[in-house]
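Notes from hallway chat w/ T.B., transcribed later so I don't forget. T.B. wanted the structure written out for a chain they're using in a teaching module, and asked if we could keep both sequence and structure tokens in one place. Agreed to drop them here.
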Amino acid sequence: MSQPLVSTLTESAVRLDPRDSREYAGNQEDSPLYDICEHPERHDNVRDYDGEIVVVDDANAKSPDHVIIMPRDTSIKEIANLTTQHLPLLYRFRARAQSEIHRMLREDPNRIPLFMTGFHTIPSLFPLHLHVQDWSLSTDKMFHPRHWKVPFSNMFISLEHVIAEIERTGHITIDAEAYREEWASKPIRCPVCPGPQPQWESLDISELANHWRDHIAHWKSTNSLPAGTHPTTGLWTPTFPVILTTKRRGGMIGFPSSPDNQTAELPPSLSHLQTLYPSLEIHSYHTDDWPTIPKYILNKTTIYLSTTELPPPQVHLPRLQWIHLASSGLDLLNIPSNNILYNRRPGLQLTSSTGAGSAALAEWAVMNTMLLSRNMLTALRHQAQKEWNPQGLMGYRTLSELSVGVIGFGSIGQSVAERFLGMGCTSVSALNPAGLPPPSSRGTMEQKVHVIRATGPGALHAFLQKQDVVVLAAPLTQETVGLLGAKEFAAMKQGALVVNVARGPLIDEDALVKYLRNGHLGGAALDVAVEEPLGKESPLWGLENVIITPHVAVMHGKYNDNMLSIFEENVRAHLDGRPKRNMASLPVVFPDLPKSYKPPTFTPTAPTRTPKVVYAVRERQ
């Protein structure tokens, strides 16, 4: 029997046009779908039914072949009613939907093999019904802007997403107010055109129909399909660019904060992007806000800008396509939960901010080389004791007299070589444990620096024997863990300097301490350590010829601007369908590391605060 009227999501369903074949609002008792479910034998447009489901041709078909699949149990009014107990029904929906798609392809082999299966987030009719149709959208029922707005927006949610969310959490949460606001405020956007678009609502809707027909014709003529189409099922769900980012309160990395540190402000570069790409949304929160970030935003996020973390395991981003890391290293992926959730996530893209701090790291290496080679640590101790003592501060060698060897010749290594050459060094060489950098990272330094490819310990030792200064700038890989140990330090020149701006595990710290204490090495400058923060019990603290900084060499005043510039460049590439800068190949294979190793962090731990939503940029109208 028909269900009683209950106040639910669809109370504000749009007013129906007289040209529709129905004359009722979505939540009224007289929805004909109830009668079809209860008495399918009475209806000519029913294709099939049994004790569990009904398959019927949609009376308001938006494509030439458009069916809906419904449960015989009419108490399931919409997706918000679905729970784990309904998973068998949804699996049945999935199987029958694929059967209908196969039928459509058999009956019309010339149709474009591009389909949608899903639900309206705020349905216009009860009870629950699954839409199965192709993407041609070419019937006379597509006469109103709202008919285009549903498939071209987040108002349509795929069956696969519903199943995945119920399998993960046991239910589906629909933020009705957020969807209504998006429905009212967002213009219609073609889901495959990235840049500015006409205001389709102000035109004859046939203009949009013709525009979409051109896309269909192009895909047919080129035997292609839009990006993201499932290769075997032909299912496609359009995604719209939604950026989510989180930053630590008081941290310097991420979107600028207001003076009271309660809100984040959109950088001018990204604000400009919103003008160029009107469909772009950007949402920014603090890292302690995860529990209160609206699920509606999480569900539609396609891009995550990581400043200090990746989303925690309990946070699900079903539409996530790309993560940009604010760091140059990929260490965040080596946290066990992140390795599972993101490093091995099929189809996910990952980019880094390599290059944002290369110049600062290079200058740190040059600065500390000069401090060590000129024995400035002794001078500073004399100053602290108010002693005017020139002993040990004379007879040093200038940079032009030092041979400098750079291990790792990517962006950082090339910047190191450039700075030393610019300061008058005449002997700068490089060794690349992983071979030459890929073409995208090659620079003019290759023409000025002799680059050696490491083919084994012999090549490394021969390289080390020639250097007065060894600068580590290589990434952390299985090949570079423990790259410099006792044998390598023994192979180095008497009085050689070691400078590490890479990662702590590249050095065997016990061996380094030994060769510093026995005087074979002249000194070391370390911005990184195996264990960060470096424990107070570490003997490195007590050595007078060692400079230690807490992984801050990269954090110059413009680092955040540089990082956001790289991110902006990649956002443009992402929206235009071009290759991104600093792409990583997933999954990243991480080396076996000491148990004490911790991925680096760049800002102090934030104080505990009451979670609060701090910022959301919505599309400009």
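Follow-up for T.B.: The two ends are 45 Å apart (CA to CA). Might be a good example for the class.
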